[in-house]
Design a protein that fits this description.
The chain is mostly helical. The protein has 2 domains: 45 residues; 71 residues, no CATH class. The chain is built from 3 helices and 2 strands, in the order ααββα. Strands 1-2 form a two-stranded antiparallel sheet. A hairpin with a 5-residue loop joins strand 1 and strand 2.
Amino acid sequence: MKSQQEEYDLIQLGRFKSSQIVFIALFTSVLALFVMVIVLIEIEDNPRDRNYQKLVKVIYDDVLAYKKAEGLDWLLVENTVSKGVKITFDASLFTEQSLFTSARAKLTLSFYLILTV
């Protein structure tokens, strides 16, 4: 049987390990915050990068406004910031019918109107 001292030592060791994990998590969070602040300061100081971000934001807003004005609910618009504006189709468009007929390069007629808009 373990003595009371050994049980007490095991409990203390468990508390010590859990406090280490909490400390490591907090330290990692502070480090990540510090890195993010440094990156944001560098972007704000560089006018070329800042102008690029502003241009991407304007394009993104224009595409969203066009999507709403034309009622294009199936169009997905995403601002990826680093790569620009990403425009894709909603995957539910292609669940019932394929975009291309099997082994042919001819586009299915029901999708032709969607792609020409």
